[in-house]
């Protein structure tokens, strides 16, 4: 298998084996077409933060649009054997998969939206077999991009309006990790990427400086700067720390002076080691004294939101931040714990049976229903989010209950402005949604983040945004949990309304 073949292959087998074994089981039981509702949501904001930025929907749409079992996929599935060397799947099931077309309804919260724990980012309604099959790919796409967009939003917030350049490809989790991270980091707040393929594929603006090896390749540092400056008279950034940082700044200034007559524009220097506050302050003095007051100072070296905050508080003169490893790998929390849970199943008579997954911890108990998220807001920002069952009538008086601590409640004044966050994306398998462009998604994320109170955006013990269950849904869920516990957990987690 060559790399190019990986990128050309059908993605229909990009799922866990158990999705296919369950699909086979549902098909054998005659349950394949039974209408089901699943929700994709996470339980905790990443990085001990107060918010999350949704991302990855455009990838998920592409995945769902191509979902169709190809002959090569079916040949592979036909080759799979069980422990007694018997075929894992019978041919008639593979014929079913061959004819299968995606026919689910998918509703999703648009990319760039600020979201909170327990809110369905994606709701899938359709034939049980199909809706189950797509669990793993939806999670792999949405979990990762949402995580990285959130990390990037935190980094950009720390930079307080300074440009953040994403430099992460070399440390990213493989090729797709690098590409998806560049996309998500751009959504979250990075202004540019160094990943040229991400520039080509997604239209993200590129930026870059040069490496230490460039300086090492010449006899002297000044020769290296001169050569680079001649090659890029308007776009050079000199990396000044290969030997001695402040001597490097002086060499950069001398080179800029030399090339001035040729119209050279002294864009920036980059610092990549040492005490970035001290060195940036000293570098700024040298640059200003030489008349280069507009020359920028880029810093890199394992930066994250906390180091950037600290450097800013220390009075650093850095005004462009190159951030790689920590942002694209989300080093301090390398996965978002998004899950995909069955919440309702339709009976033959058309009635819904609501489903629940119990857990010892209430926080991990899923929410039954056909859920929607309603966001209440005022002119000055977001007020609260309510998760409710769209299939039931809402009471007059709106009370939102924290899903983990039911003593925390918020009553919403009648007539408050609101919008529902889940939007139709696929209707009966047909795409009905025009995905916004990447710059539009990025702009939305910026606007959304600015609607959040500062106390929710802070890193340390952020205020928790009121996002919870509509009161009657909360009661329904708790009653169901209690009933199931009484039955000793041995019976199906379900309730007919
Ligand atoms: N003034 C500062 N305040 C807080 N953190 C800083 C400051 N200056 C640099 N840092 C951070 O401290 C860490 C320094 O790491 P380390 O000591 O490994 O780098 P270095 O020795 O300076 O450079 P390198 O190993 O890349 O040559 C980096 O994450 C850097 O961003
Ligand atoms: O530190 P990051 O946030 O990941 O930013 C990207 C890093 O990649 C480059 O150096 P590289 O890591 O190749 O070498 P270095 O560690 O010796 O600087 C660059 O000089 C940055 O330091
Ligand atoms: O352009 C840069 O300066 C760059 C790119 C990738 C990694 N580190 C730095």
From TrEMBL:
SUPFAM superfamilies: Nicotinate/Quinolinate PRTase C-terminal domain-like (SSF51690), Nicotinate/Quinolinate PRTase N-terminal domain-like (SSF54675). It is an enzyme of class 6 (ligase). GO terms for molecular function: nicotinamide phosphoribosyltransferase activity; nicotinate phosphoribosyltransferase activity. Its EC number is 6.3.4.21. Pathway: Cofactor biosynthesis; NAD(+) biosynthesis; nicotinate D-ribonucleotide from nicotinate: step 1/1. Residues 13-143 form the Nicotinate phosphoribosyltransferase N-terminal domain. CDD domains: NAPRTase_A. It holds the Pfam family NAPRTase_N. InterPro entries: Aldolase_TIM, N/Namide_PRibTrfase, NAPRTase_C, NAPRTase_N, Nic_PRibTrfase-Fam, Nic_PRibTrfase_pncB, Nicotinate_pribotase-like_C. Keywords: Glycosyltransferase, Ligase, Phosphoprotein, Pyridine nucleotide biosynthesis, Transferase. One of its GO terms (cellular component) is cytosol. One of its GO terms (biological process) is NAD+ biosynthetic process via the salvage pathway. Transiently phosphorylated on a His residue during the reaction cycle. Phosphorylation strongly increases the affinity for substrates and increases the rate of nicotinate D-ribonucleotide production. Dephosphorylation regenerates the low-affinity form of the enzyme, leading to product release. Residues 372-477 form the Nicotinate phosphoribosyltransferase C-terminal domain. Belongs to the NAPRTase family. Catalyzes the first step in the biosynthesis of NAD from nicotinic acid, the ATP-dependent synthesis of beta-nicotinate D-ribonucleotide from nicotinate and 5-phospho-D-ribose 1-phosphate. This is Nicotinate phosphoribosyltransferase. It comes from Pontibacter qinzhouensis.
């Amino acid at each position: 298998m060559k790399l190019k073949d990986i990128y050309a292959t059908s993605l229909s087998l990009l799922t866990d084996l158990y999705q296919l074994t369950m699909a086979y089981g549902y098909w054998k039981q005659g349950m394949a077409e039974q209408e089901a509702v699943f929700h994709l949501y996470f339980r905790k904001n990443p990085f001990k933060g107060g918010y999350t930025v949704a991302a990855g929907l455009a990838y998920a749409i592409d995945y769902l649009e191509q979902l169709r079992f190809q002959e090569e996929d079916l040949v592979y599935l036909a080759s799979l054997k069980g422990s007694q060397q018997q075929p894992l799947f019978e041919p008639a099931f593979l014929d079913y998969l061959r004819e299968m077309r995606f026919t689910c309804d998918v509703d999703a919260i648009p990319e760039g939206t600020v979201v909170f724990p327990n809110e369905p980012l994606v709701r899938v309604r359709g034939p049980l077999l199909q809706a189950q099959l797509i669990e793993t790919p939806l999670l792999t796409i949405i979990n990762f991009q949402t995580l990285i967009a959130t990390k990037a939003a935190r980094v950009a917030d720390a930079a307080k309006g300074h440009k953040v350049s994403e430099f992460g490809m070399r440390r990213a989790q493989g090729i797709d990790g690098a590409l998806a991270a560049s996309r998500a980091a751009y959504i979250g707040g990075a202004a540019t990427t160094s990943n040229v393929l991400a520039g080509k594929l997604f239209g993200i603006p590129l930026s870059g400086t040069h490496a230490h090896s460039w300086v090492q390749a010449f006899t002297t540092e000044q020769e290296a700067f001169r050569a680079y400056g001649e090659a890029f008279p308007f776009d050079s950034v000199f990396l000044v720390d290969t030997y001695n940082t402040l001597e490097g700044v002086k060499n950069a200034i001398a080179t800029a002076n030399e090339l001035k007559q040729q119209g050279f524009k002294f864009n920036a220097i980059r610092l990549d080691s040492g005490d970035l506050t001290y060195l940036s302050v000293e570098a700024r003095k040298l640059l200003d004294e030489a008349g280069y007051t507009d020359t920028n100072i880029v810093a890199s070296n394992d930066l994250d939101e906390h180091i950037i905050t600290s450097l800013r508080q220390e009075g650093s003169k850095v005004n462009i931040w190159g951030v790689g490893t920590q942002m694209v790998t989300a080093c301090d929390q390398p996965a978002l714990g998004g899950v995909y849970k069955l919440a309702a199943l339709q009976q033959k008579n058309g009635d819904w049976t609501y489903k629940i997954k119990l857990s010892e911890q209430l926080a991990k108990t899923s929410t039954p229903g056909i859920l929607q998220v309603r966001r209440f807001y005022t002119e000055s920002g977001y007020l609260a989010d309510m998760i409710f069952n769209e299939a039931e009538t809402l009471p007059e008086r709106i009370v939102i209950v924290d899903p983990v601590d039911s003593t925390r409640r918020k009553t919403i004044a009648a007539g408050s402005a609101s919008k529902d966050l889940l939007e139709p994306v696929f209707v009966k398998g047909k795409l009905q949604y025009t995905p916004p462009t990447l710059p539009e998604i990025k702009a939305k994320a910026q606007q959304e983040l600015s609607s959040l109170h500062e106390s929710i955006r802070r890193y340390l013990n952020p205020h928790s945004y009121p996002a919870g269950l509509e009161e009657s849904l909360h009661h329904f869920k708790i009653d169901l949990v209690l009933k199931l516990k009484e039955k000793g957990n041995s019976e199906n987690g379900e309730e007919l309304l």
